[in-house]
Specification:
With 180 residues, the chain is an all-alpha fold. The chain has helices spanning 10-35, 42-68, 80-110, 131-166, 170-175, and strands at 115-116, 122-123. 70% of the residues lie in helices and 2% in strands. Strands 1-2 form a two-stranded antiparallel ribbon.
Length: 180
């Protein structure tokens, strides 16, 4: 049996930070679209759709990497409630990274619009056009986006708590490789 690792695999760290940037960008783009009542946000929508599909594809890769590589253990002295919160929040983050783009794709399909990935590359609709389904999915997409936003904030707060208060190596395991 090998010794536990103290750091996430380099590809896991790369995917983590790449997706963190993409998700934060998506949240700001989505907020910009929601705050706009004009049609001038079309360019945001044209950015939002392919970025959402990229996140969907990357989370599948990220899940594969997570199950294929060893993860550093949480500190042994971490209270049980914090261990449970860490596990549940990561589960929620992964679920949201999978479900939110799928709900967005279904919502656009229910609106009868194509999901364009740029140029002439178009994804097939996954639902038939239906205004009532679109309205329901839009509400669900908005709710899930807010849930993702608050979950990301909690994740960031926990990371900073580990890095600045506990100083237990949890933050460093994702920030630095074996060199640090």
């Amino acid at each position: 049996m090998s010794a536990p690792t103290k750091h996430f695999a380099p590809v896991a760290r790369l995917l983590h930070w790449l997706m963190a940037l993409m998700i934060i960008a998506m949240l700001f783009i989505g907020a910009g679209m929601a705050a706009s009542v004009s049609q001038r946000h079309e360019w945001l929508l044209n950015l939002h759709k392919p970025l959402g599909i990229a996140i969907l594809l990357l989370v599948v890769v990220r899940l594969f990497v997570r199950f294929a590589t060893r993860q550093p253990p949480l500190p042994a002295d971490l209270p049980g409630v914090q261990v449970l919160a860490a596990k549940l929040s990561h589960l929620l983050l992964y679920a949201l990274m999978l479900v939110l783009p799928l709900v967005g794709w279904a919502m656009i399909s229910a609106a009868g619009d194509p999901v364009m990935l740029g140029g002439s590359l178009q994804l097939p609709g996954i639902l038939p056009a239906d205004p009532r389904v679109f309205a329901s999915l839009r509400k669900a997409h908005t709710f899930l986006a807010y849930l993702l936003f608050f979950t990301v904030l909690a994740h960031l707060a926990a990371a900073l708590f580990h890095g600045w208060v506990r100083r237990d190596g949890v933050l460093q395991s994702m920030v630095r490789g074996k060199q640090g």
